Amino acid sequence: MRPLTMAFTIALASIALSSRTRARDPLRIGVLAGLAAPGSPDAAPCPKGTLPDGNVCVHLPGSEEGGEDAPVVAGSHFERSGRYAIYDQIPRRPDRPADYDLYRYPIPPFLAGGHTVLSGYDLDRPDRSQRRGLTIRAVGHGGVDLPAPKGTPIALVALEHQQGDADVVYVGKWAGTTIFLRQTVREAGQLRDYLVMFGHLDHVAPGIVVGARVHEGDVIGFVGDTGSPELVHLHYETRRVRDGVDLAGKTASQMTDGSVSVVCDPRNVLPLKDEK
Ligand SMILES: [Zn+2]
Fold first, then answer.
1. Does residue 81 share a domain with residue 46?
2. What distance in angstroms lies between residue 99's CA and the mean position of ligand 1's atoms?
3. How far is the CA of 199 from the centre of ligand 1 (A)?
4. Cα of 24 to ligand 1 centre, how many Å?
5. Ligand 1 mean position to 170 CA, how many Å?
6. Which domain holds residue 232?
7. Which residues surround ligand 1, an ion (CB under 5 A)?
8. Which of 65, 75, 228, 267 could potentially form a cystine with 69 if both were Cys, beta carbons 3.0 to 4.6 Å apart?
């Protein structure tokens, strides 16, 4: 353990002891609720390599963990109930760069240093490194969080090797106001459907209804904080639809069920900046 991590762990352990949470592991990173928005000067301290996001500290893109932090069992964590769950997920492929800044996103960068991603995909991390708050309400993060001013337009990014347009398959409540798209890519010689989710929208753009087709660059909605009050950001998540499954006619909860789609590191399908 690095000295800084050790010091912070001790500090957090005392916070955990004084709280009524059921913290199982003092290494879990939590900060007190009621934080200022991420990136603001009032934000509570988080350890080096992380930023506050709501009541959790999240790993900065590119902050590498090694040694004892290396994943032991990928795709597993303690659920909020305390149950240890191992689930399907598709981690980043080794041929895809780890650096989030090398990819194109549906909104421009608004973080200091030209970064776009505040909070990355962490389901491939060891349990204790996945994001969670003191209340352990949120466990793990299957997408990327892109902070932006409220009302920022969200423009569709075609996935790498995408075939055809995107289809709107759901508009409604999920992570706040959310749009689900189906985007089909050619992957290893076959066509695969991806479910791509845009969460916490302030509102949806005109014409974005189930069945609409969306092209690269089309504005589909606007960044907001629905379902994440005062934490204005876009939650962007990709899930690979299981082979042979048709999303048509399915509800949001059916589409995100593990029998229909599998959560996937977005870096596997997002286009790189120097490609078009
Ligand atoms: Zn998110």
1. yes
2. 18
3. 8
4. 23
5. 18
6. 153-268
7. 143, 145, 235
8. 65
Residues 68 and 169 in one domain: no
CATH number, domain with residue 191: 2.70.70.10
DSSP type of residue 10: H
Is the whole-model pTM more than 0.70? yes
- Show pLDDT as tens, one digit a residue, over the chain (276 residues): 444 443 333 333 333 333 333 333 222 222 222 233 333 334 345 666 666 665 556 655 545 443 344 445 666 777 666 677 777 889 999 999 999 999 999 999 999 999 999 989 988 887 777 776 555 455 788 999 999 999 999 999 999 999 999 999 999 999 999 999 999 999 989 999 999 999 999 999 999 999 999 999 999 999 999 998 889 999 999 999 999 999 989 999 999 999 999 999 999 999 999 855
Cα of 144 vs centre of ligand 1, distance in Å, is 5
Report the separation in Å between the CA atom of 189 and the middle of ligand 1, taken as the mean of its atom positions: 31
CA of 239 to the centre of ligand 1 (A): 14
**How far, in Å, from the CA of 153 to the mean position of ligand 1?**
18
Cα dist from 60 to 17, 120, 254, whole Å: 27, 7, 32
In the chain, the number of structural domains is: 2
